[in-house]
Amino acid sequence: METSTDNQPPFVLVDGSSQMPSLGLGLWKIDKSATAAIVGAAIDAGYRHIDAACDYGNEAEAGDGLRTAIARGVCRRQDLWITSKLWNTYHRPEHVRPALERSLRDLGLEYIDLYLIHFPIATKFVPLELRYPPGWFFDPSAERPRMLPDQVPLADTWAALEKLVDAGLIRHIGISNFGTSLIRDLLSCCRRRPSVLQIESHPYLTQSKLVRYCQQESIAVTAFSPLGASSYVSIGMATAGESVLSDPVVTAAASNHRRSAAQIVLRWAIQRGTAAVAKTGRLERLRENLDVLHFQLSPQEMADITALDRNHRFNDPGVFCESAFNCFFPIYE
Q1: Burial class (CB within 10 angstroms; exposed 0-12, middle 13-18, buried 19+) of 30
Q2: Contact status, residue 123 vs residue 136, Cβ threshold 8 Å
Q3: Helix ranges, the chain (H)
Q4: DSSP state, residue 137
Q5: What's the pLDDT at 2?
Q6: CATH class of 19-325
Q7: How far is CA 16 from the centre of its chain?
Q8: Cα distance between residue 36 and residue 163, in whole Å
Q9: If phi over 0 gives left and psi between -120 and 50 gives alpha, with beta otherwise, what is residue 195?
Q10: Which residues, including other chains, have CB under 8 Å from residue 265's CB and lie 6 or more apart?
Q11: Which single residue of 260, 275, 285, 322 could bond 328 by disulfide (Cβ 3.0 to 4.6 Å)?
């Protein structure tokens, strides 16, 4: 993984050879009715990295957009990097392959480039035919619906994923929302090492030690919610006043480079050697985001933005699971 402040290539290396595009389109919170068109527009604009998940509820629509773009000759399947994720209810080994096969069917693909364990959280199984995506509640119709944890060893889930790589259904396997201790535990027992870690990361949550540890272990890092609070204001998990996009350090760099604040923050993420997946439904923003590959921040600007770190996490199961799903479930402490 590149770590210098030189102009970054438009990809990060995975497993020392595969190229994962540095900038991806994240599908979290994109409305199902708009997903196919947004995926198609993103590919037209030049995106080749699409970040999907069972839990987002729009993989079938994303598949429509992928098929249309390929049929129009905009790109070939092998030009795309498609990520999906194993949901919490499918951690038991016997449920891993059916969950992947459902994502493959919805996305219209024969293989997925990267399949991540979405959270280090195992919950009680919900049959696919009963409810899909299953969400966080075990039984939403219960008098007091709640998330029900399940005790599934990480090694068992990982071994099931390794078999799917052997079968050619997945090219790379990885993890999301994991910390160093869990990664060390996984490395001690895995047959195939994790290729990628996806984490919340932005200038108010740099996670520098975790990123450095992954670089040491040759695990590529992808930042989700790279713009920080803007992903969470609409769902009541952040306020507009917590936005890094209005921070004076960021706005000064934006003025200096004649770019938007969002472009500065995305450029910082890519220039520090991580990939970034950002959600947008606006064509002009799709193009604007891609433009971050064509300028660079100075070493001082990189240092100043990194120094904004507040260890401010917006996406924290230790907070939202209790308030929204009646189950206290911290994972980062």
Answers
A1: buried
A2: yes
A3: 32-45, 59-71, 93-107, 154-166, 180-187, 208-216, 248-257, 261-271, 283-290, 299-306, 317-325
A4: -
A5: 34
A6: alpha beta
A7: 20
A8: 31
A9: alpha
A10: 202, 203, 226, 227, 228, 244, 245, 250, 305
A11: 322
Query: Does residue 106 sit in helix, strand or coil?
Result: helix
Number of residues written out for the chain: 333
User: Do 103 and 112 meet the contact criterion of CB atoms below 8 Å apart?
Assistant: yes
Catalytic residue (choose from 56, 115, 204, 232): 56
Q: Residue 137: pLDDT above 60? A: yes
Strand-pair partners of 26: 51
- d(CA 14, CA 47) in angstroms, rounded, equals 18
CB-based contact 196:14 (threshold 8 Å): yes
pLDDT digits (tens, 9 = 90+) for 16-32: 889 999 999 999 999 99
Mean pLDDT of 246-274: 97
Measured CA to CA in angstroms, residue 292 lies from 27, 79, 101, 256, 267 at distances of 20, 20, 35, 14, 5
Tens-place pLDDT, residues 177-230: 999 999 999 999 999 999 999 999 999 999 999 999 999 999 999 999 999 999
Q: How many helices (H) and strands (E) does the chain have?
A: 11, 10
Query: Residue 28, Cβ neighbours under 10 Å: how many?
Result: 17
Which pairs from 322-327 meet CB under 8 Å and 24+ separation?
324/136, 325/136, 325/137, 325/145, 325/146, 325/147, 326/144, 326/145, 326/146, 326/147, 327/146, 327/147, 327/148, 327/149
56 noted as active-site residue: yes
257 burial (CB, 10 Å; 0-12 / 13-18 / 19+) is middle
Nearest to 238 by CA among 262, 202, 196: 202
The CA distance from 65 to 106, in Å, is 11
pLDDT, mean of residues 48-64? 98
